[in-house]
Design goal:
Ade_phspho_trans, EC 2.4.2.7, five-stranded parallel β-sheet, two-stranded antiparallel sheet, 6 helices, purine salvage, Adenine phosphoribosyltransferase, alpha/beta
């Protein structure tokens, strides 16, 4: 796949941090992308270009870096914004979805009125790794009767199999490693 000059510039800003958060992991640090107004704008513009014709009515940002992309994307699309958070972080009634980690479990929550039946929902996060968190959010969306249009990410770590877990046809990533 040929990458645009804009996405090449974004890729060049992503910093590899070895052995973070633990030994053997190479963390993809997106903070330099966010710090540079040109590359941050390129990212948001690329998301908007992909989703502008899909009649998205709600964008769900996954805690916490997903919020950084979901908010400007929702604004640009004229869609509502809601957030999926860790348990106990949302102030009103919630629904919860548990997902498995390599060692144990975690969960995410949405307000019970965050998405409604018939809404067309896009789930957004910064990085797709194994797909566990995104899958949990997708289940929260569909449990409320909304249509899960797709998942969209800045970065996909293809070697971890997240797109396969979510269904490749439902996954969009601006950059893949």
């Amino acid at each position: 796949m040929v990458m645009s000059a804009a996405m090449e510039a974004v890729r060049a800003r992503i910093r590899d941090v070895p052995d973070f958060p633990q030994k053997g992991i190479v963390f993809k640090d997106i903070t330099p992308v966010l710090a540079d107004p040109t590359t941050f704008r390129e990212v948001i513009d690329a998301f908007v270009a992909r989703w502008k014709d899909e009649r998205i009515s709600k964008v769900v940002g996954i805690e916490s870096r997903g919020f950084l992309f979901a908010a400007p994307l929702a604004y640009a699309l004229g869609a509502g914004l809601t957030i999926a958070r860790k348990p106990g972080k949302l102030p009103w009634e919630t629904i919860r979805e548990v997902y498995s980690l390599e060692y144990g479990e975690n969960s995410l929550e949405l307000h019970i009125d965050a998405v409604k039946a018939g809404e067309r929902v896009l789930v957004v996060d910064d990085v797709l790794a194994t797909g566990g968190t995104a899958d949990a959010v997708g289940r929260l969306v569909t449990r409320q009767g909304a249509t899960l249009v797709a998942y969209s990410f800045l970065v996909e770590l293809g070697f971890l199999g997240g797109a396969k877990r979510l269904g490749r046809e439902h996954v969009h990533a601006l950059l893949s490693y």
